[in-house]
Amino acid sequence: MKDFKILLLLDRLRWLFAKFGIDYPIMRKILQVKLLMDSRKAPAIIGQRNKKKQRNDSNQFIQSLWIYLIIGCFMIIFIVFGDHFLFQMSLYFGVLMFMVMMSVVSDFSTVLLDTRDKGMILTKPVNSRTLGLAKAIHVTIYMFYLTIAFSGPALIVSLFKHGFLFFILFIIELIFVNILIVVLTALLYMFVLRFFDGEKLKDVINYFQIMLSLGMAIGYQVLVRVFEFVDLEIVFNLSWWHYLIIPIWYGAAFEYVMNGMDRMYLMLTLFSIAVPILAIFYYLKLLPTFEHNLQKLSSVQIPKRKSTKSLFSRGGKWICQSREERIFYQFAHKMMKNEREFKLKVYPILGMSIVIPFIILFSFLRESNLSEITANNSYIIIYFSGLMIPTLVLMVQHSSNYKGAWIYKVAPLGDLSALKTGTLKAVLMNYVVPTMLFEGVLFTILYGGRIIPDLFAVLLAFSFLTVLCFQLFTPSLPFSEPMDTVQQSQGVKTFLSLILIVLLMGVHYLAIRLWDYGVYMYLIVLFFANALMWRKIN
Amino acid sequence: MNNVRKNYSGVDVLNGIDLEVYEGQIIGYIGPNGAGKSTTVKLMLGLIEDYSGSMEIFGRDIADGDISYKKRIGYVPEVVDIYDNLTAREYLTFIGELYGLDFQTADTRAFKMAECFGIKDVYDSRIASYSKGMKQKVMLISSMLHNPDLLFLDEPLSGLDANSVMVVKEIMSLLASQGKTIFYSSHIMDVVEKISDRIILINKGQIIADGTFSELQHSNKEGSLEQIFNQLTGFNEHKDIAMEFVSSFQEVHE
Q: What are the record keywords, sorted (chain A) (predicted)?
């Protein structure tokens, strides 16, 4: 079997694992198999696009790392523009933590919360601690790659700009911050698993993901506000609550080592190393309980029968034209509602999308006050909540029960356009409309009733964007592709659709600036664009 | 091999099961859907941990934290959960190594076993491309690779063709004659009837019959195991249900 270089690296630490009662050869074996499987894409059942067999094993996650490399190049600025390391490096680590944690929560939650392994591996003489750690290391390996791509450029530049000591410190702190993130995320999941049960647990996990993304976004805002700019000088006064902001620990380490050993930073520096180590110990201690509690996720409870006359299904009658479309609309709704892995991947981005417009609003607040902002056209930033659309549209083609897709071919249907439009309409009604409703109410409170026509325009624009993303990015039928552990990172496609969002936003802005009734013209254009695009789906 | 004893109560699925199993037996473990058959096996494998009562396998309480007893157990689950992105060679050597075999031994054994089952040509193809029967053969191989003393087979014959079924049945009786214990559950009554040394019928989480086939026949005055099964689980309306089932989708035309 193919041996992975990263595992050879891990071999050097085998003495360490042995001390914790980990069966190292077994854990290595599990990791090797997991990595091998990640490098293979499970074959799609229908719509076999790539007829030629993909014999060459290639890991899609690694292939998509270049987007992080590009962002990493921009991050060099933080390293070179001065030697106020506390500020620069705190910010750098803030961004890094944000990126890595988002990736763990949205791409790798399924690995940490996997329940299938249990039946397959724990029936063999393998203790649950070994399996649990194998999962954590599996995730850590990918985070390690991500961090290298992201920080590689900065590392090289730092070697020349700040010298060897800085370089070494940088590497050490990067390792610790990675460990901290994976273990912290796992510990948070443990916490949730411990206190909730059954069906409720499944919901809580998803809300928890939203909260986590919100927490990170807000945390980042707090981080920037720690530093005050007084006459272009960065002023920092340490107070107790700074100990709670993790990136500052890492910034402080650089300040301490590079700019003189100020006692003030020693404590923070120690935190940056001691906390990850303590977290690992705690994690290892709780692992068997964690694996045990995971069982709760696979337990099936008989749900109470709810009346099907929900607002959602009534909406379906209204927006779906044909009978088939309505059937698939209901079908897609139920699939999305019941599929745990789908929700695990979608909810973090959902949380981000809801909060992004407000984050931007907050950053405006720094330069002007609220009444000034709400008097102008800045409400246009609501477009950024459309960031969830590409992810939703991409994810909807995946399912952990993708093999069930044979039913589409067996059922007596002329063409499958109803399947596609029905599913997309369900996506809109399930996620996009509720988000817009929530945002719309808050924005109307802030900006007043004058923006209501604009909000309708945004909704139409999102509907247009949904179809556009689907036509551009989604080659497969809904729910017909396997839910791979390591998905091709959606970075590129998300980036492309960001451009589309900005374009739509730009057109909207131009329309309202150029003409008094521009928004109505824009609405009419969008209406026809929608009609055209929805009809083009086949 | 020591005696296996288990006894649990309180759990909804299993309401106090007392059972003692000796080496060299093929035990047919039968019961209606949802009776608790799979739960019993999962408990013994330590997959589910909340239970009351106690279970001993090979003379040791399985809750004592020592998992080495699993080295002597082989398991074929009812639902074929398998890493199907791997080839049979990769999967089987992986499982073999988890059981403590070295790669070479596992590979040699697995290949020979695959050859006997007639799947050596696909030994290096991904399991995802296999038919149901071929996957089942891989599962059977993976459960016996490490020469276990105790086998849990949950519907081991599902998907196999008639010839392979004969081979597997022969394998089971060979192993039993060597003193291995086979815990076998199935819904195909005439197979259970023929190969089991002892039949345990479970219903609603309780054992309602336990003995050899002739013992069961004797105490129930019925001809085949299927009839005994129907009688003991209190089921005799199969004709009515079938009628109702068919009329459910045909009444549209009326």
A: Membrane, Transmembrane, Transmembrane helix
Are the C-beta atoms of A454 and A379 separated by less than 8 Å?
Answer: yes
pLDDT for B113 equals 92
Cα distance between residue A403 and residue A407, in whole Å:
9
Q: Tell me the domain boundaries of chain A.
A: 79-297, 316-537
Q: Give residue-wise pLDDT tens across range B40-76.
A: 888 888 777 777 777 788 877 777 777 788 888 899 8
B17-21 sheet: strands from edge to edge: B17-21, B4-8, B54-57, B60-61
Whole-model pTM above 0.90? no
pLDDT in tens, B148-171: 999 999 888 888 888 999 899 899
A119 touches chain B (CB under 8 A): yes
Rounded distance between C-alpha atoms, residue B119 and residue B112, angstroms: 10
Residues of B in contact with A119 (CB under 8 A): 47, 77, 81
Cα–Cα distance measured from residue B189 to residue B208, given in angstroms and rounded to the nearest whole number: 16
DSSP B187-240: S-HHHHHHH-SEEEEEETTEEEEEE-HHHHHHHHT-SSHHHHHHHHTT---HHH
Q: A33 and B83: CB-CB below 8 Å?
A: yes
Name the residue facing B70 among A30, A37, A123 (closest C-beta): A123
Nearest alpha-carbon partner for A339 in A191, A185, A206: A206
**Burial, A507: exposed, middle or buried (Cβ in 10 Å; 0-12, 13-18, 19+)?**
middle
More reliable by pLDDT, B86 or A45: B86
Of residues B59, B127, B133, the one with CA closest to residue B90: B127
